[in-house]
Write a structure and sequence with these properties.
- It comes from Ilyodon furcidens.
- This is C-type lectin domain-containing protein.
- It holds the Pfam family Lectin_C.
- The chain is mainly beta.
- The chain has one domain: Mannose-Binding Protein A, Chain A, CATH 3.10.100.10.
- The protein is about 10% helix and about 30% strand.
- It contains one helix and nine strands.
- The strands form two sheets. Strands 1, 2, 3, 4, 5, 6 and 7 form a seven-stranded mixed sheet that branches. A two-stranded antiparallel ribbon has the order 8-9.
- A hairpin with a 4-residue loop joins β2 and β3.
- The chain is globular and about 35 Å long.
- It starts with 5 loop residues before the first strand and ends with a strand.
Length: about 130
């Protein structure tokens, strides 16, 4: 990303609720990649910044299994009825929109149009 961002990590329930609401407002049934990847080697999940998932809150719809055939799974946020149960797994090779963390105070969701500014969110709409 040209802005120097990385796929978003979620360290608090407030961040999860914020991203969930933003994704809901932008979404038409879309899912968004999070900076979350599973390791089939040790069965753990890790954020793109290297932080283990178990060090923070988790918002899985169903606890994922990354053993066996599910070797390369990534986490995605899919807005629905409950922000506390909005994480799902998908193969990392899938094509989804992404939520970027650009700075401490700005978050981005990629989609398919021109950039918009919103309070503490910078939304980049691109394919």
């Amino acid at each position: 990303m040209s802005q120097g961002g990385a796929v978003a990590t979620i360290k608090t329930e407030e961040e999860q609720e914020f991203l969930f609401k933003m994704a809901q407002s932008l979404s038409q049934g879309d899912s968004y990649w999070l900076g979350l990847m599973g390791s089939s080697v040790d069965g753990t999940w890790q954020w793109s910044d290297g932080t283990p998932l178990e060090n923070g809150p988790q918002f899985w719809e169903h606890q994922p299994d990354i053993t066996g055939e599910n070797k390369e799974l990534c986490g995605r946020l899919t807005p629905g009825d409950n922000y506390r149960r909005s994480w799902f797994t998908s193969r990392c090779s899938g094509h989804l929109r992404r939520i970027y963390s650009v700075s401490q105070h700005a978050l981005c969701a990629s989609a398919v149009a021109e950039p918009k500014e919103r309070a503490r969110i910078r939304v980049y709409l691109r394919s």
